[in-house]
Specification:
single chain, 477 residues, six-stranded antiparallel β-sheet, 13 helices, 34% helix
Length: 477
């Protein structure tokens, strides 16, 4: 079959895509920015990549007319500004319009469990999208999932942050809310399993694991799997805003996402029984099994995709087009350079920067900068990175975003997502003469930007020089 896959650089789609290709389907991947999609990973498979933006109808002409099935795996929950529910409805409306002009017989939509009488804004938006996707031209199959547990998933990373950082938690009352977590592997099995099944057409199914537990139980059972002793006390005095800040400061999530999650966590997300898993012969794994599988993937550096690499479209309205050319005029720069004897080793060190590896020099100062960024509403250092030694365009490295990762030409370009009175780039490059150059560029915004640069200049004097030397000399394990 010829399948259209939306949200192709996202957490779910990156897990589903290899399965579809392995099963010999032809897959057309929709992306907003082709540079973010690593097509080389799927060499030898029948795959096509089209650059479209479902918020802009004029870009949708790229979508082929001869598709059989389309997956709708897009959401806008982490949008930093505006009403994400309006954005989701516009995206769904444009998607429906273009799919109705194709030969598609089925659309498969991954939604959230919406059985409560009082839904959160996020879950209500998911239900509204489901309504907007219904059509007389194709059959809609909706799979409704609650908490998804897997390596790189937002829920897994947030729970891990809470459990591993806090021996004692004074937590909001919503920790007694009930949920039915499901492993990411089972979600992918359901998504692939309902493909053109007659009994799934124009139907909606709740999917969940075998157990209904509270969020508090999720944290305590996670701790037990990790061999940790934790104490959790719930209090009724935490407002939704205070709860959001608590989640934001303790975990690696952004504040908009933390706010949406807190809003959703006040609602029970328990699946209604159905016979889909029997028909597809899927036996969902337990919560503990999902955790152990996730940690196995993390330990082996085999995390396929991560929520942290998701991009806020508001922050990059022009994708990376205007950022890849580092500005020269009106900028402050710190340039360090030295000759290296083993450029391949240095390149490996560059590609491992950030995350658990650190920044090769004065990591304690980077930690302070990350803490201050969190205080002022930024992303901080807690996002880390998805892979220990692999980077691609669009990847996250702590509070930086990879704008260019070109190993062939031995160049890595990072763009700062921290809170700054201006814009910042950090570039690493090894020239043909084996000269390793490290360039920090800052384009200030008015007088505050200039004051910021001069205030941190004394630190730059030794931090950037130390980084260059340690990257050049470090011996990878």
């Amino acid at each position: 079959m010829k399948i259209l896959l939306t949200g192709s650089t996202g957490y779910i789609a990156q897990r589903l895509l290899p399965i579809l290709l392995t099963n010999h389907h032809q897959v057309v991947c929709c992306v907003r920015d082709k540079t973010r999609f690593d097509k080389e990973k799927f060499a030898g498979f029948d795959i096509e990549v089209v650059e479209v933006d479902f918020m802009k109808k004029e870009s949708l002409d790229q979508i082929p007319k001869d598709i059989d099935v389309a997956y709708y795996l897009m959401h806008s929950m982490a949008s930093a500004k505006g009403d994400f529910s309006e954005a989701e409805l516009l995206t769904a409306s444009n998607f429906k319009s273009v799919i109705e002009q194709t030969s598609a017989q089925q659309v498969i939509f991954l939604s959230g469990i919406v059985n409560s009488d009082a839904l959160s804004k996020h879950l209500q938006s998911r239900l509204n999208v489901e309504g907007a996707l219904k059509s007389n031209r194709y059959a809609l199959t909706t799979l409704r999932a609650g908490i998804i547990v897997g390596s790189g998933s937002a829920s897994f990373e947030i729970i891990r942050d809470l459990v591993e950082k806090l021996p004692v938690m004074i937590a909001p009352r919503w920790l007694i809310t009930k949920c039915q977590p499901i492993g990411i592997r089972d979600v992918i099995s359901f998504l692939e399993g309902v493909l053109m099944k007659d009994y799934a057409l124009n139907q909606a199914f709740d999917i969940g694991g075998p157990e209904v537990i509270t969020y508090k139980e999720m944290l305590l059972r996670f701790a037990k799997v990790r061999g940790l002793k934790r104490w959790i006390f719930t209090v009724p005095v935490m407002t939704p805003k205070l709860s959001s800040y608590w989640l934001y400061f303790v975990t690696s999530t952004s504040y908009p996402l933390a706010s949406s999650l807190v809003d959703s966590m006040k609602v029970d997300v328990v699946a209604q029984p159905n016979d889909l898993q029997e028909k597809l012969a899927i036996q969902p794994m337990t919560y503990e099994q999902a955790i152990e599988l996730a940690f196995g993937k993390t330990a082996q550096n085999q995390v396929i995709s991560s929520w942290r690499d998701a991009m806020n479209r508001d922050a990059y309205p022009d994708r990376f087009n205007k950022l890849i050319e580092v500005p020269q005029e009106g900028c402050f720069k710190d340039v360090q350079a030295m000759s290296v004897d083993d450029p391949e080793r240095v390149l490996k060190n560059i590609w491992s920067i950030g995350g658990t590896t650190g920044w090769y020099y004065a990591d304690w100062l980077w930690s302070i900068r990350g803490f201050l960024d969190k205080v002022f509403g930024g992303v901080g250092l807690q996002r880390g990175r998805t892979s220990l030694d692999n980077l691609s365009t669009g990847s996250v490295v702590d509070f930086w975003r990879v704008i260019l990762a070109d190993k062939t030409n031995r160049r890595l370009l990072l763009y700062a997502e921290m809170k700054l009175p201006g814009e910042a780039w950090l570039e690493f490059k090894i020239g043909k003469d084996n000269v390793f150059t490290q360039t920090a560029t800052f384009r200030p915004l008015g007088i505050p930007g200039r004051l910021y640069w001069y205030s941190v200049l004394p630190f730059h004097a030794f931090i950037f020089k130390g980084m260059l030397q340690n990257i050049a000399q470090h011996q990878p394990l």
